[in-house]
Automatic annotation (TrEMBL):
It comes from the Bacteria. NADP(+) binds at I9, G10, F11, G12, T13, V14, G15, S16. The gene is hom. GO terms for molecular function: homoserine dehydrogenase activity; metal ion binding; NADP binding. This is Homoserine dehydrogenase. NADPH binds at K105. Its cofactor is a metal cation. Pfam families: ACT, Homoserine_dh, NAD_binding_3. Residues 355-430 form the ACT domain. Belongs to the homoserine dehydrogenase family. Its EC number is 1.1.1.3. PANTHER family: HOMOSERINE DEHYDROGENASE.
Length: 435
């Protein structure tokens, strides 16, 4: 087969970036695949707007099923997003025996089991490199390069918008709301950027990573997530005084019979490699039992990086089509989906160190009352910063704890927030230590 036909459903930012790479790097792609990859048809509801790339008008249609039912199209690329029409199109294409590529992280995270099983049953390839970390080839690394390893730990900056916001807050001391306004103006964030800043986007991506690592579709609903909207420049400054940076991290630990999985703002040592990943960049740090530590770094979103990931999947599938390979890799790169469920450790069982910031009245005995409640809940104080200056009329008291259990911490915070000497609710940030 000297020509492999592709149909693209959805011609927005990523769709146009995919088309641009396929047309601009045609010679490179042909030399590496050994066949021509041709976009036979593009489906989109808007076929009039200029996307910044030159496309022959007769390639467009408003009917996605014109592509799905075309026997000459080998690969369908779904780029419309969402959980309804996208799923319908993907499952229809799979049932028609077409290989499918998608960047739809929300769909795979929340309803992936049905799609993975359909692809496996129909003997087609499902490519989703672009669903996690844009142009960083992390899915391919887990399915191929790291596949012999038991991944013991992973930490990732998986959302460029929240990382951009935290970088500006750290470097310039700006408040959250000011940075968000700038991010929207610069095109780094939607307006409002809810799914980015509340942890949902990163949790979707974390769910997909867990699914590949374990071979079973993980439950998105079981992933704890917490956003960055309540962080202040003061918290970031205090973290710096303790020797830490604040990053929105997605964290996985393999505990043997279950998995620790969470997304939230995290303090990490300033000399940790992830502490210096700034602006809109993504990075994923892995520890494998044989390979040791690995870092993957790059642009996690955008027209060209995400388009690059889409085309890498197209090329991978095209090579297999050309070679006539019958035994195709299952979506999660395991021998099969058993139907069992992955056990995610309940968040209340988490054990780690914590940062607390209290806003207190400037009166004697406040620190001892706080320490008393912490001690009653088996929480040991490691360091304290007590500033004389007032912030909004209250004196800040900042603490780092030794390792404690989340359930004890939450119980203590409820008691602390009822104290008449505290003027606002306690701020909490979890800490990843050097171990």
């Amino acid at each position: 087969m000297s020509k492999i036909n592709v149909g693209i459903i959805g011609f927005g930012t990523v769709g146009s970036g995919t088309f641009e790479i396929l047309t601009k790097n045609t010679k490179i792609i042909r030399n590496r695949v050994g066949a021509d990859i041709v976009v036979k048809k593009i489906a989109d509801l808007d076929i009039e707007s200029d996307r910044g790339v030159k496309v022959e008008r007769d390639l467009f249609t408003t009917d996605a099923y014109e592509l799905i039912n075309d026997p000459e199209i080998d690969i369908i690329v779904e780029l419309i997003g969402g959980l309804t029409k996208a799923k319908e199109f993907i499952l229809s294409a799979i049932k028609n025996g077409k290989h499918v590529i998608t960047a739809n992280k929300a769909l795979l995270a929340e309803q992936g089991r049905e799609i993975y099983e359909a692809a496996e049953q129909c003997g087609v390839i499902l490519g989703f490199e672009a669903s996690v970390a844009g142009g960083i080839p992390i899915i391919n690394a887990l399915r191929h390069g790291l596949s012999a390893n038991n991944i013991q730990k992973a930490m990732g900056i998986l959302n460029g918008t929240s990382n951009y916001i935290l970088t500006r807050m750290t470097q310039e001391g700006l408040p959250y709301n000011k940075v968000v306004q700038d991010a929207v103006k610069l095109g780094y964030a939607e307006d409002p950027p809810t799914l980015d800043v509340d942890g949902t986007d990163a949790a979707h991506k974390l769910t997909i990573l867990i699914s590949i690592m374990s071979g079973e579709p993980a439950s998105f609903a079981s992933i704890y997530k917490e956003g960055i909207t309540d962080l202040t420049p003061d918290d970031i400054l205090f973290a710096t005084e303790f020797g830490y940076r604040v990053k929105m991290l997605a964290i996985i630990r393999n505990l043997g019979n279950r998995i620790e999985a969470r997304v939230h703002p995290t303090m990490i040592p300033k000399d940790h490699i992830l502490a210096n990943v700034n602006e809109a960049y993504n990075a994923i740090y892995f520890e494998g039992d044989f390979v040791g530590p690995c870092l993957f770094y790059g642009l996690g979103a955008g027209r060209r990086p995400t388009g690059s990931a889409i085309v890498s999947d197209i090329m991978d599938i095209a090579r297999q089509i050309k070679l006539g390979i019958k035994g195709l890799m299952p979506p999660l790169a395991h021998a099969g989906i058993s139907g069992s469920r992955i056990e995610i450790m309940p968040m209340e069982k988490l054990t780690c160190a914590y940062y607390f910031r209290f806003s207190a009245l400037d009166s004697p005995g406040v620190l001892s009352r706080i320490a008393g409640i912490l001690g009653e809940n088996r929480i040991s104080i490691a360091s304290v910063i007590q500033k004389g200056r007032k912030i909004n009329g209250s004196v800040p008291i900042v603490m780092l704890t030794h390792k404690a259990q989340e359930s004890d911490v939450q119980k203590a915070i409820r008691q602390l927030n009822d104290l008449d000497v505290l003027t606002s609710n306690t701020v909490l940030i979890r800490v990843e230590d050097r171990q």
